[in-house]
Amino acid sequence: MDYFIETPYFGILISILAFELGLFINKKTKIPVLHPLLISITFIILILMIFDIDLASYEKGGNVISLLLGPVTVTLAIPLYKQIELLKKHKLPILIGIFTGVMTSFISVILLGKIFAYDTQLINSLIPKFITTPIGIEVSESIGGIPSITVMSIIITGIIGAIIAPFICKIFKIEDKVARGIAIGASSHAVGTAKAMEMGETEGAMSGLAMGLAGLLTAIMVPILMIIVKVII
Fold first, then answer.
1. What are the distances in angstroms from CA 193 to CA 5, 62, 76, 119, 197?
2. CB atoms within 10 A of CB 159
3. Residue 184 binned pLDDT confidence (cut-offs 50, 70, 90)
4. What are 4-32's pLDDT values in tens digits?
5. What are 68-121's pLDDT values in tens digits?
6. Burial class (CB in 10 A: 0-12, 13-18, 19+), 153
7. Measuring CA to CA, which of 3, 32, 96, 169 is 20 to 30 A from 206?
8. Are 146 and 140 within 8 A, CB to CB?
9. Please, are residues 60 and 8 in contact by the beta-carbon 8 Å criterion?
10. Residue 51 phi, psi (nearest 5)
């Protein structure tokens, strides 16, 4: 048993079983807050704690799954390609929406961080919370953040976005498919995009586009914005 735990197969198997459990519970209960990802994370933590398994042992397989994030993200180009004409038609509103999303997230983190007197390193760690994990980690490291905190904030942001997005769209009567997709992708990255794809192919395609461009804009803009913030504050 100890030999198996020390192999990558353990982390991969536990991750798959945990997520399948999350899907099962979510489908059975129909409760939005019981998101499959949230359940799977909780399940994995409990397994590691109960059986006193070192995190490094799990990460041997967990890192293999993380390695697949890039290729999986690229597959989002497929629904986007199918909606290419819609993208051309609404290119200006789409770009403005994504840019607004990036700026809103950055400014809100800075302001709330200052209001609650957060440590500078913690603020830097939270700034990339709305973009996909691979890009978020790189941005966090480049501005002096803590990648582990960044990953945690990205996961929480994505789960919250996936849970509340349908309700927000319903409350504010946002019925345009392009607008819904852009809003979800620009604020809650891959997890939100998965929810957007459940809402419809157009929403999923636009959310995937927003997620990619938001990550790109953040990587380019955040170092510059950080310099401006240091000068102003």
1. 33, 22, 9, 31, 6
2. 20
3. very high
4. 888 999 999 999 999 999 999 999 998 88
5. 776 776 776 677 677 778 778 888 988 999 999 999 999 999 999 999 999 999
6. buried
7. 32
8. yes
9. yes
10. -95, 10
> What would the two tokens of residue 171 be?
């409350």
Which of 46, 44, 39, 53 minimizes the C-alpha distance to 7? 53
Q: pLDDT tens across 40-75, in order? A: 999 999 999 999 999 899 989 888 887 777 677 677
Helix/strand/coil (H/E/C) assignment for every residue in the chain: CHHHHCCHHHHHHHHHHHHHHHHHHHHHHCCCCCCHHHHHHHHHHHHHHHCCCCHHHHHHHHHHHHHCHHHHHHCCHHHHHHCHHHHHHCHHHHHHHHHHHHHHHHHHHHHHHHHCCCCHHHHHHHCCCCCCHHHHHHHHHHCCCCHHHHHHHHHHHHHHHHHHHHHHHHHCCCCCHHHHHHHHHHHHHHHHHHHHHHHCHHHHHHHHHHHHHHHHHHHHHHHHHHHHHHHHC
Tokens 């240091």 correspond to 230
Q: What average pLDDT does the segment 137-161 reach? A: 92
pTM, full prediction: 0.83
Structure tokens at 167: 């309700």
- Name the pLDDT band for 1 (thresholds 50, 70, 90): low
Compute the mean pLDDT over every residue in the chain, rounded to the nearest whole number. Answer: 88
